[in-house]
Design goal:
By secondary structure, this protein is mostly helical. Helices cover 62% and strands 9% of the residues. The radius of gyration is 23 Å and the shape is globular.
Length: 352
Amino acid sequence: MLITSRDTGRWVLPKGNPIAGLAPHEAAAQEAYEEAGVRGIPCPTAIGEYTYVKRRRTRGDRDLVVAVYPFAFVEQLADWPERAQRVTRWFSLPDAADAVDEPDLKRLIAGFREPPMPVSLAERVLPAVRTEATRRVPLLGWFQALMPKQGRFFELFDAHAATLVAGAAALARLIHGEGEIATQIAAIVAQEHAADDITRDVLQDVRRIFVTPFDRSAITDLIGVMDDAIDQMNGTANAVALYEVTEFTPQMRDMAAIVVEAARITAEAIPLLRSLGPNAARLHDLTARLIRIEGDADDIHDAGMKALFRQSRGGDPMDFLVGREIYASLEKTIDRFEDIANAIQGLVIDHA
């Protein structure tokens, strides 16, 4: 979504000055509401910065640096403070990049990738269809027998990455109080089950396919750490259900937002594995960001644990134990995405 600037009418992102008492990403979310009526889940780690010249009538022009944060959209409200002062519009990413003026902002928007939707089961039954076609047309089976058996590894990796995106979105909505807790938990569980089916398909292909795109151990390692990530999301949801947790700390919300961003990055990186050589530089950038946001999550985790300990003094010890369980599960989830980054980096080193 872009909005028009009040002074020049050009297309810009919702943005504003730092706000006392709010972290930068929280201030960004507040500005998104005030200027565009948008509510969502802001990631605490910026994706980049751009500069522009702020035109001021009385005090002269000023160069400003703007940090841009990923923001998982939830809704646009019917009314908001600056609705009458601006125009808001949804753009495709290429069109949005063309619409803004600042070169660095163009680059940030053009380089952003929206996450994919989960792949339905119907889209993963091509082998069964091919088997039926071969039975009806024997000559087709003869030609297929001459072709290298490379399996559906890339398609299955893409499908699994989509379950990570959907599971992360449900986890963030759960921790941020968006929707019924039971509904979000059920969504996470459903994605975990779908991911298990995909993982099983990958492992079956590893055993039966003659030619694989990578070393068999590399394939099993990658799908294994991807599956660990969704399993850990499911573990967080189970802990929330088990301990009947209904309120979450700001640090927990920030960690859940980082899970969303980590899943989005993973979903962008996985399709690039089809052509490792041409995509090596982009894969390096994506895995570096995964590792960087994992470090940010560690800092947020430590700050949250310290605050939790202070709050638990003189209170119910169970509050600390339950909170520590949630923090630990969120941290492990993000750690699994770092494992994914390491697995991808290994593929690039070995095959690019």
